[in-house]
Design a protein that fits this description.
Length: about 325
């Protein structure tokens, strides 16, 4: 296939987003929930990303779901939560764009656009994104070959947008034990075939929490320029992809374990020196948010108990009436 723009050239492309560089020496960590669900959820997620030394907060606001009955995302309301949480912790933002309307809404508000697997061959969308001068993470299609994937990247470059980051997120195989099969050879192959940076999303590859850490480590050891990982403050309550989401603590732990792996291959994963990276005001605000959430939870419990008391009273009155009649 004729792919002049994405094919390997002398110099590797570095995609710079503010102070973060994809394709340089540093390994970039992106985390956050599959879908933006609430302001509190995003604040906790952002705190977790920051504490782990991550640079980018993820969260889908338009969710292309396999079932029309699954949660479709909060749309514009979700975008506000994503942007606000990221700003509070000085993080970059990434979210998925699904069509021209969502692109118009997102292009000026987020730092990185994501084209999801299901849209890797949405050529009209690729052309629209190609017209922008904006970093794009292009995920590999569910069953896309390396050449088809590169060809989709070529569409974006051909439009004049050179800031493309490839993302391997697992491909469909005959193996049902994992959601997809992570094709780690794609990382090495892409280093030979193209000058574009490549990151790995172990979450959608595995579909299960227990495999995220080993796959992430393998990806970094194999030369990936970064990781896109689903992390949710309360995975058990997640509206999408909870089973494959790490908790903030697990995310932080994984980040620490990645440091020696990055070092072993001559790369760097920058960790915050300590949780003090969150300044006092942020910490106090977080504490206040936690207290507010506890109060709301207690009030809800009180209301439920009051209703139960009312029901009990009604029942005993009915019982007394019946006794009198008898
Ligand atoms: C996602 O990142 O939440 C997502 C939907 O990923 P993919 O397009 O890889 O399935
Ligand atoms: Mn997801």
């Amino acid at each position: 296939m004729n792919l002049p723009l994405v094919s390997l050239k002398d110099e590797r492309t570095k995609v710079q987003v503010k102070n973060t560089i994809f394709g340089g020496n540093e390994v970039i960590l992106m985390g956050g929930p599959c879908a933006v669900e609430s302001e509190a959820q995003m604040a906790e997620a952002a705190k977790g990303v920051k504490a782990a030394g991550g640079q980018v907060l993820r969260g889908g606001v338009f969710k292309p779901r396999t079932s029309p009955y699954s949660f479709q995302g909060l749309g514009e309301e979700g975008l506000d939560y994503l942007v606000k949480a990221a700003a509070e912790y000085d993080l970059l933002t990434i979210t998925e764009v699904v069509d021209k309307t969502s692109l118009e809404l997102l292009a000026d508000q987020v730092d990185i656009l994501q084209i999801g697997s299901r849209n890797m061959q949405n050529f009209e969308l690729l052309k629209w994104v190609g017209k922008l001068r904006k970093p794009v993470v292009l995920k590999r299609g569910l069953s896309a070959t390396i050449e088809e994937w590169l060809s989709s990247a070529e569409y974006i470059l051909a439009g004049g947008n050179s800031q493309v980051i490839l993302c391997e997120r697992g491909i469909r195989t005959y193996e049902p034990s994992t959601r997809n099969t992570l094709d780690l050879s794609a990382v090495g192959l892409m280093k030979e075939l193209t000058h574009l940076p490549i990151i790995v999303d172990p979450s959608h590859a595995a579909g299960r929490r227990d495999l995220i850490a080993p796959l992430a480590k393998g990806a970094i050891a194999g030369g990936a320029d970064g990781l896109l990982i689903e992390m949710h403050p309360h995975p058990e309550a997640a509206k999408s992809d909870g089973d494959q989401s790490l908790t903030p603590n697990e995310f932080e732990q994984l980040s620490a374990e990645l440091v020696p792996i990055a070092k072993a291959i001559g790369r760097r994963l920058v960790r915050p020196s300590s949780l003090e990276t969150l300044n006092d005001l942020q910490l106090l605000r977080n504490r206040m948010d936690e207290i507010d959430r506890d109060i709301a939870e207690l009030l809800a419990q009180r209301m439920k108990t009051a209703q139960e008391i009312a029901k009990c009273k009604l029942k005993s009155k009915d019982a007394q009436k019946t006794e009198k009649v008898i």
